[in-house]
Design goal:
By secondary structure, the chain is an all-alpha fold. The protein has a domain at about 40-65. It is about 75% helix and about 0% strand. The protein contains 3 helices and no strands. It has helices at about 1-10, 15-70, 70-75. The chain is rod-shaped and about 80 Å long. The chain starts with a helix and ends in a 13-residue tail after the last helix.
Length: about 90
């Protein structure tokens, strides 16, 4: 009953419409910026992980070079079963 009285008198309904419009406008303006920020953060995290993987492979190559000089079977980085190749 109170709801119909408030709606009939007009108090509050204009503020509701204005509030919804302002909220929609802010959402439309902030939405793309928020998505862009999320994409940037994902890209930065993926770049960090790629750098860590590159460092790991470099260390593996250094270890293989240090250990491979005495063993002729391990000196060839393209041997069967190898999952990576040394940079040339």
């Amino acid at each position: 009953m109170e709801l119909s009285i408030i709606a009939a008198s007009g108090t509050g309904s204009g503020e509701l419409v204005v509030g919804l419009l302002v909220g929609c406008c802010i959402g439309i303006l902030i939405g793309p910026a928020f998505r862009s920020w999320q994409v940037y953060r994902e890209w930065a995290e993926a770049s960090r992980e790629a750098r860590l993987a590159d460092r790991l492979l470099e260390r593996m190559e250094i270890d293989a070079d240090l250990d491979g000089h005495d063993d002729p079977a391990r000196s060839d980085d393209t041997a069967a079963g190898s999952t990576w190749q040394a940079r040339r």
